[in-house]
Write a structure and sequence with these properties.
Blueprint: E1 7-13, E2 17-23, E3 30-35, H1 42-55, E4 63-70, H2 76-86, E5 91-93, E6 103-104, H3 114-126, E7 129-135, E8 138-145, E9 148-156, H4 158-168, H5 188-214, E10 220-224, H6 228-231, E11 239-240, H7 244-258
Parallel strand pairs: 1-4, 4-5, 6-9, 7-10, 10-11
Antiparallel strand pairs: 1-2, 2-3, 7-8, 8-9
Helix pairs in contact: 1-2, 3-7
């Protein structure tokens, strides 16, 4: 990447992990996964990133824009200060507004998580009728019909469900989650995997089936998110796109530039 003059740095800030991505064109990404709660200041964030940037031969001064999709408001000031101090720019915050190129047909667009906004923007470029399932700390299901965001559903994520179970039940062991092939567990570990992983898959498939029956257009189903690989074999889908959120964040930046906001590419 040495010599890149217009690098965009993107942060998808989740409750458990932050995915940091670098791109020049919104198509190809170098990305890293950081523990969200490990940085509380802009200097700590830079200390984590500097080694990764050096490894990929990216100079901090080559970062033209910093785009953030955050669902952790308490850390937003860290990214604002980081962008100003180290990249000499201000943050472009992803949100459901007129620059996104989508109609937000819900009660309160400001309540939509920034990651879901980015997912919807990217998904609408793939198909104007689609369902996005993002497997993270929470599982989000988002519905786009004729490039209009209709809403969706939120479920506990796989590890969220598992941690809750382990915290409330003293005798149950912690297990590594994986997709079970059977529906009857012969030991405690299999019982937990079937209940959490297969049970979640049935819930997601059932919701998606009902949504498809409700919509007039036949939507494609897009999977994304760090935990989608665990449950992928059990979900009915059309496409997996692990960079969906980052692609949507980059598109949000491009749309903001087109509308004449204080950024340019």
């Amino acid at each position: 990447m040495r010599g890149w003059a217009k690098v965009v740095l993107l942060f998808d800030v989740g409750n458990t992990h932050t995915v940091a991505g670098l791109t020049e064109n919104g198509l190809n990404f170098v990305k890293w996964r950081l523990a969200t709660q490990r940085y509380e200041t802009e200097d700590e964030l830079y200390s984590h990133l500097s080694t990764l940037l050096n490894y990929h031969r990216v100079e901090i001064e080559n970062i033209r824009h910093v785009v953030v999709a955050s669902v952790v408001p308490s850390l937003n000031h860290v990214f604002s200060k980081f962008a100003m101090k180290y990249a000499n720019t201000s943050v472009v915050w992803v949100q459901a507004d007129q620059s996104s190129g989508i109609q937000w047909d819900v009660d309160n667009p400001s309540e939509i998580g920034a990651d879901r906004v980015a997912n919807a923007i990217a998904a609408a470029q793939i198909s104007e009728n689609c369902i996005v399932i993002d497997f993270g700390t929470a599982i989000t299901i988002d519905i786009i019909e004729k490039r209009s965001y209709k809403g969706g559903a939120i479920l506990p994520g796989l590890t969220t469900s598992a941690h809750s179970l382990f915290e409330k039940t003293a005798k149950l062991p912690q297990v590594d989650l994986s997709a079970p092939l059977k529906c009857i567990g012969s030991n405690t570990a299999d019982n937990i995997k079937i209940g959490i992983v297969k049970g979640t898959a049935y819930a997601v498939n059932g919701l998606v089936k009902e949504v498809k029956e409700t919509l007039r257009n036949d939507p494609i189903v897009i999977l994304t998110g760090g935990q989608s690989k665990i449950i992928q074999k059990l979900i009915r889908y059309d496409l997996v796109e692990q960079n969906l959120t980052l692609r949507g964040m980059y598109t949000f930046l491009k749309n903001a530039c087109t509308l004449g906001e204080s950024v340019d590419l």
